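Progress note, project year one: complex with zinc ion.
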Amino acid sequence: MASGTGLIYNDQMMSYNLLWDFPACSIEVPERLSASFEKLKQYGLVERCIQLSVREATEEEIILVHSLDYLEAVKSTAFMNVEELKSFSYKYNDVYFHPNSYYCAKLSLGATLQLVDAIMSDRIRNGMALVRPPGHHSQKSDACGFCIFNNVAIAAKYAKQRYGTKRILIVDWDVHHGQGTQYTFEEDPSVLYFSWHRYEHQQFWPNLKDSDYNAIGKGSGTGFTINIPWNKVGMGNADYLAAFLSILLPVAYEFNPELILVSAGFDSAVGDPEGEMCATPECFAHLTQLLMPLANGKLCVVLEGGYNLRSLSESVCMTVRALLGDPMPPLVGQMAPCLSAVETIQNVRAVHQPYWKFLKYHEGVIIKDPSTKKLNFAIEEHKLESADTTDIEKKMTVFSMEKQDFDEFMDSHMKNVLVLAPSVRTAWAGDEVKSAKLDRCLKVEAKETSMEEAGILISGGDATQLENKRLLLSLGCIFPLIDKITKREVRNGIVVAPTLSSSIIAAQYSITVGASRVFLLLLGEADIPTDVKADEKILVVNVCAKQDKMRGNNYFIPICWEGGNECDGDLLHATFEFILPLAYGHRPELVVLAVGDNTGIPAVTLAHLTQLLQLLAEGRILVISQASDLVDTLTSSLLGDPLPTVRSFVLNEENALVLMKLRQELKQHWKLLKNSVL
Ligand code: Q9C
Ligand code: ZN
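Model obtained:
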C-alpha cells in the first residue's frame, strides 16, 4: 500500500525572467515558486512531505508531444541575445523566452516525470510538483501563454508508454483553458481531459471556440473532452463544487482512471488578477480530496498558473494539506452556485448526455441564450439568488482591494479556516471484532448507560425498544466515541451496533453535547421519530427500499429505491447528485453514517462513501455498522487508506428517476442540487 506525499521543488526553476517590457507576460515571475515554497515551510508542510529531486527531461520525452523542429527552435534560444529572444517570443501568443528558459522547461518537465515515476512505482501515494514554466497552453509546435513544454500532456503520454496506464484523467482547474492539452488528446479515449476556464463567451484569452462546452473531443475521443466555460467572473466555492459534484466526479467514477494528473493553476483562486474569481484557498483542498478516492489515490498535482502570490501560496499549502490527508476546513460562503454557473453546467451535461450513463436521465436542454448575454443580466441574476446578495457584494469588494487590504483579508480568512488534526485518527468501541484494521485504531472503553440517560434523548419515540439491552450496550459505546470526536481527541470512530435506531439517538446526543448541526445518513430501514424528522439541526437522509415514506420537510429526506434492488452505481449516483450537495449545504459539525446489514450495497462503494463524507465536518464522522463483516472495509476508509476502485457503474432507471424527482422538489432549499435552470 503506497503511502506518503511527494513534493518537488528546486530553485533553479527561478533562474529565468522577463527581460524587456512586455505587459502581457509581466505577471509570470520567479517569486511564484519561492513564495509558495516559503509558505509551505512556514506551515511546517515541507518536512511532512517526501522530497523528490528534479532532473532534466530528455529530448525523447519532449518529443512525446512536441515536434522535433519546435524542440530545436526552443533549444536555440539558450544562445540568443535579448533582441533575438524578443523576436522569437513574438512568434507565439503571450510567452517570453530567456537564455535559461530551455533549461528550466526541461527541469519543469523532468520534475513532473519524477513525480509520475514515484507514484506509478508506489514509492509515494500522491504528490505535488512546484514548477515553472507552466505547460498546459503549449502545443505540438507552439509555445503559448507562458508555457514552453506541456508538462502534464507529456506526463500522460509517458505514463501510457512506460507503465502501460490505460486510463488517465487530467483535471485542469487553472482559470485558463489548457488548449494544448486538449489538442493533444482530443482523439484519444484513454485520456479524459476536464477543464474549467474563464470564457465570457469567447471574450477572454485565448478566445477560442474550442474552449466552449460543445468542444467534446473528436473521433473515438468524442465525449472524453469536458469543457466548463465560465461566462462571468466571480465564480466561487459553490460554483466549483457544483461542477465537480454534478459533472466531473460522476464521469470520473464511470471512467475509472488509473492515474489522475492535475493541471493545478491557482489563477482560479480569489484575488488573482487574471482570473478574477472568488474561490478561497480551502476550496482547492476540497477539490483535491474529492479526487483522492479515485485511481487508488494516485494523484499527481502539477503547478500551472497563479499570479497573486498570497492567494497562490495559500492555495498551494491547502492542496498539499489535502494530499497529506489532513481534515478539511468547511467551505466558506453560501453553498449556492450562481445562475450563470448553473447555465453552464446544464449545457455541459446536455452535450455529454450521449456519452455518460449517469447523464442519461437529465431533464435539461441546451440554453442558447444564457442570462449573461441578456442586457438586464445583473437584475435577472439577483432575482434567482436574492439570498446571496451579501455574498456577491462581498465578492465584488475583493476585486477592488488594495494589496494590503487583500493580505489582511487573507490573514483573517486563513486564521478562520485553520483546522488542527486530532492526534488520533480513528477510534472504536465495543466487543472484539475480527479486523486487523482495528489494531491501528484507539480502543475506547464503553461506559454503562442507563435507560434514563438514553431515554431522555427520545421524546415521543418508542420507549419500549429501549428495554432492549443490546441497544443500551451499543449506546454505551457510541456516547464515549461522540465525546472524543467532539472534544477533538480523535477524528472519527466506528462501532458495531445491532440496531440502526442507535444512530438516531447518536445524532440527538451529539446535539446535546454541543454540535450545532448533524448530518445523519441512514442506509437501511429505521423508524425515525417525528421530532427528529422536524429538527432542522439534524439533516436525515434515509436510503431505503421501496416503501411509503412521506418527506414532509427539508430535513428528513427518504431516498426510496422505487426500482427495487439497487444497482452498483445507484448509491454513488445518489452520493454525487444528492447526498454530498445536501451535506455541503447543511454544513454539519458531525456526520453519522449508519449502515444496515442487508442493504445490498457493495463494500467498495461503502468505502468510497465513507471516504467522501470525511470532507464534511472537519472529518468528524461516526460510522455505525450493523454488520461486523463490514468493519474491515469501513475502518480502512476511516483511516484514510487508498481505496480499491469501483468497477461497475450500473444505474437502475427507476432509481435514477427517483433522484431526479427529489432534486426538483428540494433544489429551492438545497441550492447545490441545481444543475439546470429548469
Ligand atoms: N492580461 C497560465 O496561467 N494572457 N497561463 C495574459 C494579460 C496570457 C496564462 C494576458 C495568460 C497565460 C499558465
Ligand atoms: Zn492560467
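Residues 77 and 84 are 8 Å apart (CA to CA).
Residues 424-647 form a domain with the Arginase; Chain A fold (CATH 3.40.800.20).
No further modelling is planned for this target in the current period.
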